[in-house]
């Protein structure tokens, strides 16, 4: 229950892991972003040599959520995600549909901001898939377009809302295993070097678990763990609750 105290201080209650990203991935000479691609995608800006007070973080938009729903739909529930991005790799991005998606109002909101299934979940994804099918798009083309939507929304958020271009982009979350998505991010975010947390000693599949373990440790130690520059809170607060047995 990490979010309520940040919200009580005027924050969004998310993203939650900006402090952890700063502790694990800040570099004295290299400006980095830590780009998580879970159901929703969120970025943490880590300026070279900067302290936690200079860290910024926000949700960029959809991560795997819409891609996963499309694959689940196309396979009748037999598959829950596009393994390796193979389905998307066989398709072509539909420019008109991508243009419609890129006009989503969340993408125009300035940070601090967070989002979730209320914006990009099943209802929205199903409506997009139905519209695409009525226009005769094949499953692989729909998958390619939704993959491009995630990549393009991340790249647009960087251009619009970050203080500058990063030298390195560190990927984590399930999207880091989607080769098609990673390839598109690498192209859209050039000249930044795109890496996966595995290269820095932290398995991308374990990164979220490690992050929340560190947040729990901070709670147990009575240490504030929100980053006001990320959530918009008025001041640092201790997150979470400890309930005695």
The strand line-up of the biggest sheet is 3-2-1-4-5
Order of helices and strands: HHEEEHHHHHHHEHEHH
Q: What Rg do the Cα atoms give?
A: 18 Å
The helicity comes to 40-55%
Beta-strand content bin: 5-15%
- Low-confidence parts: none
Distance between the termini: 17 Å
Keywords:
alpha/beta; about 240 residues; five-stranded mixed β-sheet; globular; single chain; 12 helices
Give a brief description.
This protein is an alpha/beta fold and 245 residues long. The protein is 44% helix and 12% strand. It has helices at 3-8, 18-25, 65-74, 86-89, 95-101, 105-108, 117-120, 122-134, 139-161, 179-188, 207-220, 228-231, and strands at residues 32-37, 40-46, 56-62, 168-172, 193-196.
Kindly describe this structure:
This protein has about 240 residues and is of the alpha/beta class. It contains twelve helices and five strands. It has helices at about 5-10, 20-25, 65-75, 85-90, 95-100, 105-110, 115-120, 120-135, 140-160, 180-190, 205-220, 230, and strands at about 30-35, 40-45, 55-60, 170, 195. It has a five-stranded mixed sheet with strand order 3-2-1-4-5. Strand 1 (about 30-35) and strand 2 (about 40-45) form a beta hairpin. The chain is globular. The mean pLDDT is about 95.
Give the arrangement of secondary structure elements.
Blueprint: H1 3-8, H2 18-25, E1 32-37, E2 40-46, E3 56-62, H3 65-74, H4 86-89, H5 95-101, H6 105-108, H7 117-120, H8 122-134, H9 139-161, E4 168-172, H10 179-188, E5 193-196, H11 207-220, H12 228-231
Parallel strand pairs: 1-4, 4-5
Antiparallel strand pairs: 1-2, 2-3
Helix pairs in contact: 3-8, 3-9, 5-9, 9-10
């Amino acid at each position: 229950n990490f979010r309520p105290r940040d919200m009580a201080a005027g924050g969004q209650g998310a993203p939650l892991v900006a402090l952890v990203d700063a502790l694990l991935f800040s570099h004295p000479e290299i400006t980095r972003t830590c780009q998580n691609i879970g159901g929703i995608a969120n970025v943490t800006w880590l300026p070279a040599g900067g302290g936690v007070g200079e860290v910024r973080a926000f949700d960029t938009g959809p991560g795997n959520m819409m891609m996963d729903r499309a694959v689940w739909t196309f396979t009748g529930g037999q598959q829950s995600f596009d393994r390796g991005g193979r389905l998307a790799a066989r398709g072509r991005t539909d420019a008109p549909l991508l243009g419609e998606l890129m006009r989503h109002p969340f993408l125009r909101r300035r940070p601090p901001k967070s989002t979730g299934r209320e914006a990009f979940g099943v209802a929205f994804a199903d409506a997009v898939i139905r519209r695409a099918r009525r226009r005769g798009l094949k499953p692989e083309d729909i998958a390619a377009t939704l993959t491009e939507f995630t990549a393009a929304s991340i790249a647009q958020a960087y251009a619009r809302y970050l203080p500058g271009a990063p030298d390195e982009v560190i990927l984590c979350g399930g999207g880091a295993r989607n080769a098609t998505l990673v390839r598109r991010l690498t192209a859209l975010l050039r000249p930044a070097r795109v890496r996966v947390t595995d290269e820095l000693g932290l398995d991308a599949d374990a990164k979220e678990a490690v992050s929340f373990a560190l947040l729990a440790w901070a709670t147990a130690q009575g240490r504030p763990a929100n980053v006001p520059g990320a959530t918009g809170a008025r001041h640092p607060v201790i997150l979470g609750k400890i309930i005695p047995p």
